[in-house]
Amino acid sequence: MGAVDNTAIQRLLHPRSIAILGASDNPIKLSGRPIELMKRFGYTGRLLPINARRSEVQGLPAFRSLDDIDGDIDLAMVMLPADKVVDGVRDCAKRGIPAAIVGASGFAEVGGRGEALQQQLQDVIAETGIRVLGPNCLGMFSLRDRALPTFTSAMDNGGELREGPVSFVSQSGAFGTFIFSAAQAAGLGISHFLNTGNEADLSVAEVLGGLVETDETKVLMAYLEGVHHGRELLQVARRAHELDKPILAVKVGRSEAGARAAQSHTASLAGEDAVFDGATRQHGIVRLDGMEQLLDAGLVFADGRRARGRRLSTLSLSGGAGVLMADQASSNGLQVQPWDEAWQRRMAEVIPPFGSPRNPVDLTATLISDPGMLRRALEITVEHPGTDMIAVLLGNSDNASGPLIDAIEQAYRSTDRPLVVVWTGGSGRPRRRLQDLGIPCFTDPGRAAAALGKLADFSLRPPLPAAERPDDIDDQVVRGILRDARQQGRVQLNEYESSRLIAAYGVPCSGAFPADDPDSAVAAARDLGGPVAVKLLSDHIGHKSDIGGVRLGLTGDATIRTAAAELLDIAREAGDPAARLLVQRMAGGDTELIVGIKRDPAFGPVVVVGFGGVLVEVLADSQVGVAPLDAAASKRLLTSLRGSRLFGEVRGKPARDLDAAADVVARLSWLAHDLADDIAELDVNPLLLDQVGKGVVAVDCLAVLTKPEK
Fold first, then answer.
1. Which InterPro entries does the entry mention (predicted)?
2. Residue 545: pLDDT band by 50, 70, 90 thresholds?
3. CATH 3.40.50.261 placement within the chain
4. Fold entry, domain 511-586
């Protein structure tokens, strides 16, 4: 996203002049709708219909070609059949138009001829530098300028367009406009809406990158069906983080298809959706599960307020509703704590004696006959130092809604803390009035609590990773291991080579020696001392334990010799007569982790952490981060595991050395980053974690190389 690209995107977002290629005089036809919509809603710029057969289109002067137009043209909307689009876009580029929207379908989404057409379009884009939104897209809305180069029916519902601080980008056209319409109905003001369609050129990430730089955009929303430019999306997330502009994203398709046919545990744990989930969490993108959650979060984020903590104070007309809100708040990571006695006494002075001043505060139904009570109670709540967020729960009460809304508005304007209203039942008029005042209003306590929980998560988000490459990496050893494997035409390293590779990155590994036969295995065990493990050493057999290729805790020459002979027999039966043995010192530590790396098609090298051992897929307790990571981000990955309580003191066991584990994760993330072109997958499983001060040790490692390019 260079300066030139962003300039073109800004012209797309704020066009002062729009040419419509193939403009129809019929406002009902798709090619006539963009002009009709912009005339109807009052587009403030120059509208330039291109029609070779007419001198006038819908009452506007028409032009035979782009060359007949004087002055600059910021944007072209190409409303031509698919087989005419490539020539039309080429004409736009020759005319010096920086950006174009292609509405036609019939490209890659239909396969065959359409794929060839889309490639031709991409060739023109590459040759000329013009930026293109689409094809197969509904276009764009810029509500500030009333620029509506679109043919959607979303504008046919009547009523005024509600402009606001939220910009929305969707890969889906129709569903994106459904969300736009629902946002307008919910009182969520929109600045821009763009549909990226097939993304032959401009992706969601690039469009978000342009929007985040606009003054009118304070919140970014995205609807994604897939991610093809993951690293660009994370660059935008970093910029949004700097500007304190939240990105709210819905991504559909949580399947694990990307993990099929995996050679390592890492690949099966880090499917496409798991990588997206980890990448967005790591970079402060707020992921949501559907349209309602997206719009609810948009309502509470749109006013720009941030939560200083997770403490929620609730004032309710109904004690039952207050309890429900407390339950829902707790489920969403918020805290509904009883106020201390001094503040309870203050609240008790303004509510009925049969109410509750604890929090949730039960104002009782007396509120309906004494609406001024809400004003007094809110004044105290706003002053309360232990309140980070406020929720007001009301229902029905249409006749008393005027003074109640006045009290809410006064409290809302008097504080910068997030304040939401849940107004259930009634005519709906009070909710619409609150919407008009810009105060987030819901009909369900659970939805309000979920939105506030997301706001708290974002407001209290940790810094983005600022990883620094360790200065003790032995690059010479790394190059030697990879060179030898490549020269031998291998795509899998054996355990000894894999362990040497991670040791070169500073990962502690249990001492081990390779052995060719039972006698050399006995000699290696004597050199290592103490109990040993004897394992198959093969660059063909990935998971040794699956075929009984591991013996643990062995002592005594005879025992080791027998085990070694049995393992070599197993290797021959498994089809690898060239397999050797690895004799390894038994290591301490009773908490088994897995740390792995892989290359994701969208986000590049990623690191996976989880609870490991032979049951790693059964436990399925893992988290994913985009490499490289610093120690703090690595520690957050580990503590976000469902079983993270095992790192603390449990049943008399001392706490585990979590800092040492985080250091290993960070180092392996740098291995993933540095060797992204060479390492396809790598597992350290298990990484044994001991008590604080005793560190970690890797006792098994498997590395799979990328296949050489043909």
1. Acyl-CoA_Synth/Transferase, ATP_grasp_subdomain_1, CoA-bd, Ligase_CoA_dom, NAD(P)-bd_dom_sf, Succ_CoA_lig_flav_dom, Succinyl-CoA_synth-like
2. confident
3. 6-301, 306-460
4. Dna Ligase; domain 1 (3.30.1490)
Q: Measuring CA to CA, which residue among 592, 606, 700, 593 is closest to residue 270? A: 606
Tell me the C-alpha distance between 672 and 609, whole Å.
Answer: 13
Fold of 306-460: Rossmann fold (3.40.50)
pLDDT classification of 485: cutoffs 50, 70, 90 = very high
What local confidence, expressed as pLDDT, does residue 264 receive?
40
Q: Which CATH class is domain 6-301?
A: alpha beta
Q: Which amino acid type is present at position 263?
A: Q
Tokens of 438: 């810009």
Helices 113-128 and 82-94 cross at an angle (nearest 10°) of: 0
Q: Which pLDDT score, from 0 to 100, does residue 679 have?
A: 97
Structure tokens belonging to residue 606: 């990623």
Question: CA-to-CA distance for 17 and 21, rounded, in angstroms?
Answer: 13
Q: Which two tokens stand for residue 567?
A: 């393992």
Q: Where in the chain is the domain with CATH 3.30.1490.20?
A: 511-586
Spatial strand order in the sheet of 190-195: 140-142, 190-195, 166-170, 219-224, 247-251, 286-288
Q: Given CATH 3.40.50.2000, say whether it is the number of domain 591-705.
A: no
Categorize the per-residue pLDDT at 468 as very low, low, confident or very high, splitting at 50, 70 and 90. Answer: very high
Contact 414, 297 (CB under 8 A): no
In the block, which residue shows the tokens 């105290």? 380
Burial class (CB in 10 A: 0-12, 13-18, 19+), 525: buried
Q: What is the mean pLDDT of the chain?
A: 93
Residue 613, by phi and psi: left (phi above 0), alpha (psi -120 to 50) or beta?
Answer: left
**Half-sphere exposure of residue 454: CA atoms within 13 angstroms, side-chain side:** 25
For residue 552, give the amino acid letter: L
Per-residue pLDDT at 615: 58
C-beta separation of 97 from 66 below 8 A: yes
Tens-place pLDDT, residues 38-60: 999 999 999 999 999 999 999 99
CA atoms within 13 Å, Cβ hemisphere of 531: 7
Confidence of residue 269 (pLDDT cuts 50, 70, 90): very low
Measured CA to CA, the distance from residue 156 to residue 141 in angstroms comes to 14
Residue type present at position 557: D
**3-state SS of the chain: helix, strand, coil percent to 5?**
40, 20, 40
Dist. CA 326–CA 313, nearest whole Å? 9
DSSP characters for 427-487? -SHHHHHHHHTT--EES-HHHHHHHHHHHHHHHTPPPPP-----TT--HHHHHHHHHHHHH
Share of the chain above pLDDT 90, in %: 86
